[in-house]
Structure formats: structure tokens, C-alpha cells
Design brief:
about 250 residues; alpha+beta; Archaeosine Trna-guanine Transglycosylase, Chain: A, domain 4; five-stranded mixed beta barrel; 6 strands; about 35% helix
């Protein structure tokens, strides 16, 4: 979807901050908007649809709060880390409170967000008047906008890694093997799909969001998979699982 949807960066975009990175471009995540400000944000974004299509809703920038120990740049108050993932709502489920539920649960929204692009916060407009949420002026940081690329060299190295004995047993990698076999998914999309699986810790997840180079993100994926394969091999040498039990590593 990201190759066909364009973000209008000339307009301010709603900010949806969370404690840690929840979304990368070319990935999707369900979120629930339950605070009044974010319920209003979702409603305003959906109201922007001109043709009735869900994809015509205004975009949302998934930001992350800058924790106290964060030594990098920050913007706004409460402070945010500057790089965000700009997303589009691709599915919306209103969550009405049932009988006996408290009134504060009325008007909640469950939304499926699809990441479109990385961007950097240039400035923030704090809540004003009826608007309860923050808006930001964003600048895209992707040096190669457009459709995600196929990287034959990366695909070859990834296929070789996934063919290793220990990594073949990791069932969560089965869809990646299928994509490589079929050649149906661009390499840059595969990289983004693997980042949440391989990134360890909030700091690493954010640094991968802030990394503008697709090739650097690809190198991270290959390095982490090689490390994972090595660790699994060492673990198997120390305590091999009895094959009769059908144990899988996941």
C-alpha cells in the first residue's frame, strides 16, 4: 500500500505518541484510541475523508516519548523523540460501551494503522481551542521516495541464512521464506517486517526507525539473523531437544 499512498507533508499531521516504537513503514498494527484527545484525533482524521474511502482519511504520525535517560534530541513538552512513522488508517472499528460499562468508555476507536514513511518533526502545535491533540509539521527523511525496492544481493544472503538448520526451525520466519520463494514482496518491505522481530529494546527500535538508509537496515537484519542462528546452534549443542517430542524454536 505504501507505494500507492502519498502523504501531503505541506499540511500539519496529528501526533499519536506512545512510550515506544509501535510501527514501521510497510507494517501494520492495531491500536485502541481511548483517551479523549486521541478519540477526537481519530474522529477528525476520519472526518477528512472527501470520497468516503478509508484511505482518504488524514494521516497520523506515530511518535514516541523521550524518556528521562534519552540523550538524543527532543521536541515539544512533554518531549518527543524527533523521528516518527507516518501512517494511514486502513480499518476502523468503533468500540461502543456495552450495558453497565462506564460512560468514559463511550466513543473509543480501534484502528488498524499501516506505516507509510519515516519523517522528522520540524515543529509542534500544542493543543488549542477545541483541539485536544498535538499537530506537527513533518519533513520526510526517506532519501529514495517511491515504491519499495527489490535488492537481489540482500535476498540471496537472506535466503542463505534462512536455510541454516537452526533458523529453519523458527516458524515465525516461515512467511519470509515464502515471500523469497515467490518473489512477491520487495526486499525493503521484508526488511521492515523483520525489524520488530529482531530489534532488542526500545532504544534499538527507535534507532532503526530513525535510520534513513534502507541498506543499513538490511545490514542490521542480516547481522541479527546471523547472530540468532549462532545462538540457537550453541544452545542446541548444550542441550539438544529430543526429536521425538517435536520441539520447535519459537
Amino acid at each position: 500500500m505504501s507505494s500507492t499512498v502519498r502523504i501531503d507533508f505541506s499540511r500539519p499531521i496529528a501526533l499519536f505518541p506512545l512510550p515506544s516504537v509501535a510501527l514501521y513503514p510497510h507494517t501494520a498494527e492495531w491500536l485502541v484510541a481511548f483517551e479523549p484527545r486521541y478519540r477526537q484525533m481519530v474522529e477528525d482524521c476520519l472526518r477528512a475523508r472527501a470520497d468516503g474511502s478509508i484511505l482518504a482519511a488524514a494521516p497520523i504520525a506515530m511518535a514516541t516519548y523521550a524518556p528521562r535517560q534519552w540523550a538524543g534530541p527532543r521536541v515539544g513538552e512533554p518531549p518527543l523523540r524527533p523521528v516518527v512513522c507516518v501512517a494511514k488508517i486502513i480499518e476502523h472499528v468503533p468500540l461502543d460501551a456495552g450495558p453497565g460499562d462506564p460512560a468514559r468508555k463511550q466513543g473509543r476507536h480501534r484502528i488498524l494503522l499501516h506505516g507509510v514513511s519515516r519523517a522528522r518533526i520540524e515543529s509542534i502545535s500544542e493543543p488549542d481551542g477545541r483541539r485536544l491533540y498535538r499537530l506537527a509539521r513533518l519533513v520526510p527523511i526517506d532519501p529514495r521516495p517511491g515504491a519499495p525496492r527489490r535488492l537481489p544481493g540482500f535476498n540471496h544472503m537472506l535466503s542463505a541464512l534462512l536455510a541454516q538448520d537452526q533458523l529453519r526451525r523458527v516458524q515465525r520466519l516461515d512467511p519470509v521464506r515464502d515471500w523469497l520463494c515467490r518473489g512477491s514482496v520487495p526486499s525493503e518491505v521484508i526488511i521492515e517486517q523483520l525489524l520488530p522481530l529482531l530489534a532488542r529494546g526500545d532504544e534499538a527500535r527507535y534507532q532503526l526507525l530513525a535510520e534513513a538508509s534502507g541498506r543499513e537496515r538490511g545490514r542490521f537484519v542480516l547481522s541479527e539473523l546471523a547472530h540468532l542462528g549462532l545462538q540457537l546452534s550453541r544452545a542446541a549443542e548444550r542441550s539438544p531437544a529430543p526429536p521425538a517430542r517435536g520441539v520447535t524454536i519459537n
